[in-house]
Amino acid sequence: MIRKSILVYLLCLLTVCWMPAAENSYDSLVKAVAGNDALEGETLEYFLRLTPPLLQYLDHASGRKLNKSLANVHSVSDLKRALDREIGPDWIDFGEELFDFFTPCDSLEKNGEARSMETAHFILSFLTGTRAEQDIDFLAANAEKSFAAIAATIGGSLEAPMRFLKNSGEAGQDKRKIAVFFHGNKQAMQQRTKSNGLGITNFGATIDDEQSVRLTCEINVVYTNPFALAIVAHEVAHAALLLGSFKLEAIQGNKIEGQKGLAKAFFAGYRRIPAFLQEGIGDHAAYYQGFLGKWPLLPDIGQLLRPVLGSGSYIPLEQLIDAHPAIVVKKHKYFSLLAASFIDFLIQEYGVGKMRAWLLAGNEKGRETFASIYGEDVRAVEKKWLASLT
Ligand SMILES: [Zn+2]
């Protein structure tokens, strides 16, 4: 796909099947509730965008129409109570099933024309007639917001690494921006990335016309419903972290010849980050900077994690932090959300400086660097974090 590149693949949400999406009949109910509760600003925007498709999905998941049972719902808290009663306490679950419901797998994108939109740090590419086209302003604003949030977490500006970027996509033309491609279904994503996931970030290096090393960063997302915004935020966070942690002195001013020289320069600059932190920062951007606190229907993270915290499937952090992502993600659905919650606790309690130091420690063995940076072992801090969630 990208010649002369060394790529680091970050596979995120993986899913396999599909269900067709029906017309949404909940728009008017959701608008009425928003009016009654006088929701405004981002809270209103998230509520209007995300709630109707959630209800549509819950119709499907529960096997019945919720319309009747929601007839007496007048406020957000009424709605929460009704869903607790009708569906059960775990009605909110951003699992694979929700994404599958909105993600058709059986038709290729046809007839759409390629379009792109530039923001300060991104070139967003999409096809006409897709959901991404409909939501593009919202997507652009959210991508920039996630990028700024991660920049703040890892220490200020990412403008220096941005200057080394070389776009690899059709819309790129050496704009020194991160390329983002939105796909209307999984086949289109697979054609471009060879990935059967819903989101992927490729980070690598290439050689430009002057034989200088340049970085490449491309995000691909299957965007078929506004919940995929969580994937966009997650992938943008990966991109920002990969760029922000790269040691630019390894490639600065270097004239490179051949693949070997390129690989050597790239891996001299590439900083290893434990998968726990990579994925955790991704979900931190999605939940703490994106949804949480803004979409009034989303329970707090402690509640989202309750099924795993109170069960035998809980994996102690000292194992999770050093675990291989491919193994853990398969076993542990809540892996990245759990990591995000722990990261947020660390930032709140110990400050962003220590988080920055941990992220940039350049060691895949996060447990070792944790103890030296935080002055306590993971197990002791894990206890405090768990206590904060109850
Ligand atoms: Zn990820």
> Helical percent range?
40-55%
Ligands, deduplicated: zinc ion
What is the CATH T-level topology of the largest domain? Glutaredoxin
Unreliable stretches, pLDDT < 50, 5 or more residues? 1-22
Into which percentage range does the β-strand content fall? 5-15%
Query: How many separate domains?
Result: 3
Coarse structural class: alpha/beta
CATH architecture of the largest domain: 3-Layer(aba) Sandwich
- The count of strands amounts to 6
Q: List the total number of helices.
A: 18
CATH class of the largest domain: Alpha Beta
| Biggest pleated-sheet summary | 6 strands, mixed
Q: What is the radius of gyration computed over CA atoms, rounded to a whole number of angstroms?
A: 21 Å
Strand order of the largest sheet: 1-5-6-4-3-2
Mean pLDDT: 83
The outline comes out as globular
Order of helices and strands: EHHHHEEHHHEHEEHHHHHHHHHH
Describe it.
The protein has a six-stranded mixed beta sheet. The protein is α/β, with parallel strands linked by helices and 390 residues long. The protein is 50% helix and 10% strand. The protein is built from 18 helices and six strands. Residues 1-22 have low confidence and may be disordered. It has helices spanning 27-36, 41-62, 76-86, 96-102, 131-134, 136-153, 159-162, 186-193, 229-245, 258-269, 275-291, 301-309, 317-320, 325-331, 335-350, 352-359, 366-374, 378-389, and strands at residues 8-11, 114-118, 122-127, 178-183, 199-207, 213-222. The chain has three domains: 8-12 and 108-271, Glutaredoxin, CATH 3.40.30; 27-102, no CATH class; 276-389, no CATH class. A hairpin with a 5-residue loop joins β5 and β6 (213-222).
